[in-house]
Amino acid sequence: MSETPVPVARTVADLRRRVARWHAAGERVGLVPTMGALHRGHLALVAAAQAQCRRVAVSIFVNPRQFGAGEDLAAYPRPERDDLAQLAAARVDLAFVPPAAEIYPDGFATTVSLAGPALGLESDHRPGHFDGVATVVAKLFVQAAPDAAFFGEKDYQQLLVVRRLVRDLDLPVEIVGVPTVREPDGLALSSRNAYLSAAERQVAPRLHQVMRSAADAMRGGAAFVPTLERAKAALAEAGFAVDYLALRDAATLAPLAGIAHRPARLLAAARLGRTRLIDNIAVAPAE
Fold first, then answer.
1. 104, 115, 245 from 140: Cα distances, Å
2. What are the residues whose beta carbons fall under 8 Å from the beta carbon of 59, sequence distance 6 or more?
3. ∠ CA 15-18-20 to the nearest 5 degrees?
4. Cα–Cα distance between 61 and 30 in angstroms, integer?
5. d(CA 253, CA 270)
6. Pairing of strands 8-9, 94-96
7. Which of 11, 21, 133, 184 has the highest CB neighbour count under 10 A?
8. What pLDDT score does 256 carry?
């Protein structure tokens, strides 16, 4: 038996009408912002939202403002029919699937820009990326008026950027981080994993394996700088071009020289062929 189709809103006005009815009924509304090409990681966000909210909306929008020159905007997968089928099977209450002109109409001239957790790491390699993220997320929050929004920890810097955005602008949205979903071999799920060739897919889990080894070594008292240098060398030997591998404060992303007294996060971005993989793991303070 086929699933009941998920309701779809393609305009902000339609989205607001539907959400207003939910709020009028006293229902808590959750939002899961996505760029589509949905996988089990996205569905974990949906499940987390459904566990905390009476109504759940999922946005699907490939945001052009978070792609830089030469990045994969044109090639980014857009399997809308499959995405909507997955949302129907998950019993999502609404999919918001706007065209670009609905989000950025003619004459659009506003950008939301952050410092703090938006500086460094991704922004060193993707200038303007978080301006695009912050702008579209701010718009989605104003448009959808959710009580809570759900983001994956795989994009850890993005999660902290969104939390900072909400605090700084006094937006009445609870931001909920959801743990990274992985393949059995440790590879973090990502829509861009579809770019990996069969041979690259066999190598890709090495990123997480090397990060785990480095984190374990630092927990065991290994020197911080040599440990990260060895990890970078191991990734290069496996065929990765490393953009960064860095230990940062888990709450602020401030650089750390060790894991002495507060929770840390080990974050990495590396290219394997034409695929850019990112990952991160929590690193507890040293005993």
1. 12, 21, 31
2. 31, 32, 33, 34, 95, 96, 97, 98, 140, 144
3. 105
4. 17
5. 18
6. parallel
7. 133
8. 86
Alpha-carbon gap, residue 227 to 222, rounded angstroms: 7
Report the pLDDT value the prediction gives residue 222, as an integer from 0 to 100.
Answer: 85
Would you call 245 helix, strand, or coil by DSSP?
A: strand
Tens of pLDDT, residues 5-32 = 999 999 999 999 999 999 999 999 999 9
Q: Give the pLDDT confidence of 97-129 residue by residue, as tens digits.
A: 999 999 999 999 999 999 999 999 999 999 999
138, two tokens: 């701010």
- Specify the pTM: 0.96
**Average pLDDT of the chain, as a whole number:** 95
Q: Is 170 left (phi over 0), alpha (psi -120 to 50) or beta?
A: left
Question: Mean of the pLDDT values across residues 140-148?
Answer: 98
pLDDT > 50? residue 1: no
At 100 the pLDDT is: 97
- Is the predicted pLDDT of residue 287 greater than 60, yes or no? no
Structural domains in the chain? 8-178 (3.40.50.620), 191-283 (3.30.1300.10)
Structure tokens at 253: 């992303």
| Integer Cα distance of 222 and 67 in angstroms | 37
Q: Which active-site residues does the annotation give?
A: 42
Distances in whole angstroms, Cα of residue 55 to Cα of each of 14, 15, 184 = 16, 13, 31
Per DSSP, helices labelled H in the chain are 12-24, 40-52, 80-89, 100-103, 122-125, 129-144, 156-168, 198-203, 206-219, 224-238
User: What token pair was written down for 180?
Assistant: 């990274």
**CA nearest 119: which of 109, 111, 129?**
129
Q: For residue 122, which of 149, 150, 161 has the smallest C-alpha distance?
A: 161
How open is the CA angle 116-70-232, to the nearest 5 degrees?
Answer: 60
Give tens-digit pLDDT for 215-225: 999 888 888 89
